[in-house]
Structures are given as structure tokens and as C-alpha cells.
Amino acid sequence: MGRPRVLVGEFKHETNSFCSSRTGIPQFRARSLKVGDEIVPFFRGVRVELGGIIAGCEEEDLEMIPSVAANAMPGGLVTREAMEFVKGEMLKAIANAGSVDGILLSLHGAMVLEDAPDGEGELLSALREAVGPNVPIMATLDHHANITPAMLEKATCLFAYDTYPHVDQYDRGYEAAKTMARVLRGEIKPVMRGKRIPILAPFLQTAKAPMKDFIDAAHRWEEDCRVVSVSILAGFPWADIPDCGCSVIAITDGDEELAQKIVDSMADTIWARREECALELTPLEEAVRRAIAAPKGPVILADVADNPGGGGSGDTIYVLRELIRQGAKNVGLAIIWDPEVVEKAAQAGVRSRIKVRLGGKMEPLFPDSIEIEATVRTIADGIFVNKGPMGRGLRNDVGRLVALDADGIEILVPERRIQPWDPEIFRRVGIEPTEKQILVVKSSLHFRAAYGPFASEIIEVDAPGITAINFHQFNFKNVARPIFPLDTF
Ligand SMILES: [Zn+2]
Fold first, then answer.
1. How far is the CA of 164 from the centre of ligand 1 (A)?
2. Where in 284-337 does DSSP place strands (E)?
3. 420 C-alpha to center of ligand 1: Å?
4. Which of 82, 128, 312, 345 is the most exposed place for a label (fewest CB within 10 A)?
5. Which residue stretches of the chain have pLDDT < 70?
């Protein structure tokens, strides 16, 4: 028998079903869409899931059949066209190969389609149909995946990140590939069980209780040699689908009873501590006042409610407006997504003074914009490579990237939306982030991995936005009720 042949692919999207926009093929293309032979050279050595999958396959001498790798910025419902394209590419790669011995995927796990609630369930069902019941299908998942019955039924093994900020994407991909090799050699026969916990969780660091305790407990289970993997998923709360919520997945070597016991006990533990999952944010006016008065910078103001990494438009101006109102100086702000202003700045040129209406153009629910007069300081190509612990080595391309200086507040305006979790975005336009008094980042938590070590203080700001954590203000229609904290228990 020749080398085992394994289909490799990626289809990642975190869908915020409250966003007004749609996520189609152009949005996948704008972030990352690679097909066939482009995939392995692009991801080899990069600290993301596919980097780990490739390393594991090469180490285990599995022949990779690269299909498609599509990843879009979190945002609105994914179009039917995008799903059919990606699914079609994967099915075509299987058909062209004649047969495959396994499937290794990098998924997010919180994809909602414009006409169906369970993107990953649909994809996994189609692949299962194509390869039959005996071919192992394994996938990595984001810690913010919402687990559905179809995902648990159609996949053989699912491995979620253990970290938020997500610094173990590569390790989970590697783990999936190594597990695939063990299964193909007949060393283990995995069985998987999952359980939903009816909690809408805001962004909870895995370095702090309660989430740290849950992950630690999962790791203790993994010390048992019968256990292959235990995942704790916080879920993605802005996806209004029936299965939205926290969950637990346990995979054992052939021991269904043990897998069930693990998910039952973990679910009980998490449910009992649900009250600890709530977070308190700092009111905007107070946050800015404290940041200005801080004896030492940089103070990070995290604009958690407009996080492009959760579907935020990246163009709300509430924090900027308050900074101007209070006369803040020596500020770096990433980002206000506004291609129109990029174009105006580019036409005016570096050093020119421009008057623009900034922000509030992308999400009809948050339409406030701000008139500013600013100097065009830098116009860059918007290409930078992550140097922080998260996704190190990954190349970002935000289109043209402009730095506007509004009298001491330097605003990064990219042509494409991004969650600025790596400070290299500032350096790309010649701003040294460590020297600022205040840094504003539109990010809920990922920024902590790279900004945390040099921040004098981090303040999570309570401002309006589509990733706000007061879940009562969203009009949930589909999520299975009752659920904490929308309902009382
Ligand atoms: Zn996530």
C-alpha cells in the first residue's frame, strides 16, 4: 500500500448574524482564498492551523491533497454561492483523487449561511456523503465555535483551540494531523461526544478564571491514556442559531461511556459557574479620562464592541469622538475602516491637510460619523507580517493603509477591514506603538497577546457596537431558550 492520501482544506468564518452585510466570495478573496497547489507553500511554517496540519502530514508521511483554503473576516451571513464554491472545490479534489484515506480541515465552527443555520454541519455532511462512513474526517475549530449535532455526527474528531487569544492554532492543526496518522495506522478508534451548555459567553481570557479552570480540567482529563482530546468551547454568542452557546467535546479511544462522562461532568462544572462568565466594562468617558491621566503609557483602550474579529464594521467613531472631546494627545488608533477616506488622502498626498467625514459608513445600525481635519502623515501599501505570538509569520494585506494625524491623535485608516491584534500595523505607517500615551485597538481580546507585554494598563471600553457584550440589546429570535444570561434560571 502506498502513502495514505489525505484531503487538506480550510473554510473559516465566524458569522455575526446581527451584521447587515453578507460574506461572499469577494470577502473570502479579500482575506485569504487559495486553491490547490497554492496552499502548501503559502501555509508551510506559518503559526496557524494549516501550518500545523502540513507539518504533521509531512512528519507522518501522509500525502496531502490540497483542495481549497478560504478564510474571510468575521461578518454577516455567508452566501450560498460561497458555500457552493468551497464545497464544490473540496468534492472536486476528492473526485479527481479517485479516493482519499482521510480528510483534515481547518474550520471555524461558527459559520451561518444566508439560507441555513449550520455551515460546518452542511460541509461535513457533504464530505461524509462523498467518502462514506469509514474515512476519518478531522477538523480544528476555533474556541468560539458553536457545536451542532450535524458537526458531531459527521466528523470523526474535532479539536478546538485551548487558548484565547488564539495562540495554539498551529498546535491544534498539528494534533489533528498526528491523530489522523494514528487512526490510519489502526492504533486508535476514536469516539466523540459533545454537549451544549446554554450560556452566551462574552470574551473570556483562557489565562484567567473561570475559563482557565475549565481548560485546566480538560487537560487533566487528557492525562488519562484512554482520552484523545477534550475541548472547551466558549461559543460565538452573536450567531443567532438554535445551537449557539458554550459546549464541551470529548474524544476517547473507543470508550463511549467515558466520553459521555467527561462531557456531562464538564458541562455541570461550567454551568455551576455561569455567573462568573459575565464581564464589567468601563464607561467610555471614564476610560478616556483615566487613559489621559495615567502617569505612564501606553494605556490600551480596547474598543471591544466594534471588533472586526467578531463582525464589527471597524468604523465606529465613538471612542475617537470622546478622545477629541477630552483633548487627548499622543494617541494611536487602529482602526477606522474607510476606503473613501483612503482614496481622498491618497489623492491629496502626504503632508497635505484634509477635511473628511470619517467612519459610520459600513454598518447601518451604527451610522454615526465624525468630521475631522487632519494631516496625511503616511500612505503605505498595507502589507505587514505578524510578529506577535498570535499567527506569527502570517502576512496581512489591508490594501492601502493611511495614517491621519488629527492634532495628536494618529488614526490608521485601511482600505480593508482587519482586527488590529498585531502592533506591526502601527509600525507599517511609521508609528512606534510603545511610545504612545494611549493606543486604541478595535479588538476584544486577541490584542492582549502582543500588546499586553508593553501596555501600562488595559481598559475595556463600554461603547456602542455590534460586538457589544450586553446581549439583552440584541434581538435574538432563533437561539434555543432558555439561555443564560437572557433568561433567568
Ligand atoms: Zn475565536
1. 7
2. 299-302, 331-334
3. 14
4. 128
5. 1
